[in-house]
Write a structure and sequence with these properties.
- The structure holds two protein chains of two kinds.
- By secondary structure, chain A is α+β, with helices and mostly antiparallel strands.
- In chain A, about 15% of the residues lie in helices and about 45% in strands.
- Chain A contains five helices and 17 strands.
- In chain A, a hairpin with a 7-residue loop joins strand 2 and strand 3.
- The two termini of chain A are about 35 Å apart.
- Chain B is of the alpha/beta class.
- The mean pLDDT of chain B is about 85.
- Classes of the chains: A alpha+beta, B alpha/beta.
- The interface between A and B is medium-sized, with 39 and 25 residues.
Chain lengths: ~425, ~140
């Protein structure tokens, strides 16, 4: 049976009336977060600005698991998530057929979330972590522009005496949208393969993950299709025509030929620069990227410690290499958990994109019920200093950081005029059901 | 029946867990299982295994808000309700495991165990009958 057919059966089964099955065969669970965030900037940062927004953290997810027969270890699982971030476009983040092959091996075929970083798989399930959103520097779209792939995974779980060990291997492909330069660049992951090794006890978990991807995208079409690029191109054309006309008239005796020639020279020079900048970006780009993560989590009776460092080397596409990470410390006082987090993103190796920044956060989580929590996060973010571009770049101005601001850059410098620091507040309620 | 369970729940809430002195882990009287060690019990209720000594079993839970469930989680799994929610949310929503079957009351638990000899559950001394066999008592 082909993968598509198998999935179609799964989806079909799930759309049958619930009452057709005994309660234990079909299990429906869900999660939701409703949040409001605001910054102290006019410019839009991540998904908010000074007017505030409900779209950064507000999501709704529903999962259905159908296990037709207790003695056959096969389940059909679909998880649909609607996010305010993407204008409530519903996405199937998980849609797979799961087969518990042996006590320790589970095989999932279909659409699965890629466990690149420690919280990647549980990214949308707010009750499982202290903050409203996992640190944007490492978990945001700027660092990981995809969440799910269509493919398969092998998941080995071993129970040792007082601890457990887990190994996951997965392969797949997916269509992606990469947010860059304030745009959404469409692309394709033609190949993805990765593995995760983890070991832990009831309270402790240590984890290493590595993923390799091959990417294809049409950056030039997207960039050249923007109103800004079209306007810049039209301006240059008009300037050229009027400079040529002025020069013809001057040559015919109506004006100063030297001044007209100088003007034309200037127009040609700026056209050449425009051309050079766009020559940095080719059409039909193909490249490679890798993702590596080393992380640890200690979740004791009262103390919570989490730390992660991630690395993303990139080649063949004009996106930067990144090093990202975070450290979180929290302490439970009954239903309250205050927590502190430092997170950072360092980008390098690109002549077009600099998003380096770091952030400090103070937050508190209050468990209203075991299944519902109220959260408040306050964050201060600082953008890093400008970087030098490579020696062969046609652009010689320093590449200033635009952090995680969503600003379209000036097309002659590829930098955006954004504040160098900002504060952000986020409040949310999160639940599972 | 429901009223009784609600009253019991309310009382135990008032006395914060002192009403249920003991939680008994039980299977159907017809089950071939005769014992379970605390490690296996923990794995069963954390969704990490579905077997006791090679025999397939189906672990049944009470509702998350049931006082006896909270008591059981604390005694057998050493986890408070908040940690249980976080643990199971992580299992259920990240493709690691299916939620356990749940029943509303101890009486329903008794019925479920009577009907299915592959099931394992827990109840207080008040609900125990000759239809079930006690494997361990959690003090």
């Amino acid at each position: 049976m082909s993968l598509q057919k198998l999935l179609a059966v799964g989806v079909l089964v799930l759309t049958l009336p619930v009452s057709a099955f005994a309660a234990s065969k079909l299990k429906v669970n869900g999660f939701t977060t409703a949040g409001f965030s605001a910054t102290d900037t006019k410019e839009s940062y991540a998904f908010a600005d000074e007017d505030g927004s409900f779209s950064e953290s507000t999501i709704m997810g529903i999962q259905m698991r159908f296990s037709p027969n207790k003695t056959v270890p096969i389940s059909f699982v679909t998880q649909f998530i609607a996010r305010a971030r993407t204008d409530w476009d519903m996405s199937a983040d998980w849609a797979y057929v799961g087969w518990q092959a042996t006590d320790s091996l589970a095989v999932n075929i279909g659409r699965i979330k890629v466990p690149i970083f420690m919280i990647s798989e549980a990214y949308d399930v707010g009750v499982t972590y202290p903050w409203i959103n996992p640190p944007e520097e490492i978990y945001g779209f700027a660092n990981v522009p995809f969440t799910s792939i269509t493919g398969m995974s092998f998941d080995y779980n071993y129970d040792l005496d007082e601890s457990w060990a887990r190994a996951q291997f997965y392969i797949g492909r997916d269509n992606i949208k990469i947010p860059a330069l304030g745009l959404l660049v469409e692309g394709e992951i033609t190949q993805l393969a990765g593995f995760t090794l983890s070991w832990g006890t009831d309270e402790l978990e240590i984890r290493f993950a590595a993923v390799g991807v091959k990417v294809k995208m049409d950056l030039l079409d997207v960039l050249f299709g923007t109103p800004q690029a079209q306007a810049a191109n039209a301006d240059l054309g008009n300037d050229m025509i009027s400079a040529l006309a002025t020069l013809s008239l001057a040559n015919a005796g109506f004006g100063d030929p030297v001044a007209a020639a100088t003007d034309l020279g200037a127009v040609i020079a700026s056209a050449a620069q425009f051309e050079q900048v766009f020559s940095l970006i080719e059409n039909g780009l193909e490249g490679d990227a890798g993702f590596f993560s080393l992380s640890g989590r200690y979740n004791g009776d009262r103390l919570l410690l989490m730390a992660e460092i991630g690395k993303r080397p990139v080649s063949g596409i004009p996106f930067p290499d990144t090093v990202s990470g975070f450290v979180t410390m929290g302490y439970r006082f009954g239903k309250w958990m205050p927590h502190l987090t430092y997170s950072s993103l360092d980008t390098s190796g690109s002549d077009l994109v600099n998003q380096s920044q770091s952030a400090g956060m103070i937050g508190v989580r209050y468990d209203i019920q075991p299944w519902a929590a109220l959260k408040l996060d306050i964050q201060h973010i600082e953008l890093d200093d400008a970087q030098y571009r490579s020696a062969d770049s046609p652009l010689t101005t320093p590449l200033t950081s635009s952090g995680l601001f969503n600003q379209f850059p000036d097309l002659t410098t590829f930098t955006a005029d954004v504040p160098q620091s900002l504060n952000k507040i986020n409040i949310a309620i999160t639940m599972v059901f | 029946m429901k009223y009784k369970a609600l009253t019991a729940g309310f009382l135990s809430f008032l006395l914060s867990g002192f009403v249920f002195a003991e939680v008994m882990v039980v299977v159907s009287a017809k089950s071939e299982i005769t014992s379970v060690d605390s490690k296996t019990l923990k794995k069963l209720y954390l969704g990490k295994t579905k077997k006791i000594g090679g025999v397939a079993v189906n672990a049944i839970n009470l509702l998350d808000t049931h006082p006896l469930k909270i008591e059981f989680d604390e005694k057998a799994l050493k986890k408070d309700p908040g940690k249980m929610t976080a643990y199971w949310s992580n299992m259920i929503f990240t493709g690691k495991g299916a939620p356990l079957d749940q029943v509303d009351t101890e009486e329903e638990m008794l019925n479920a165990l009577r009907k299915d000899k592959l099931s394992i559950g827990y109840m207080s001394a008040d609900t125990i009958s000759e239809k079930v066999k006690v494997l361990i008592t959690l003090p």
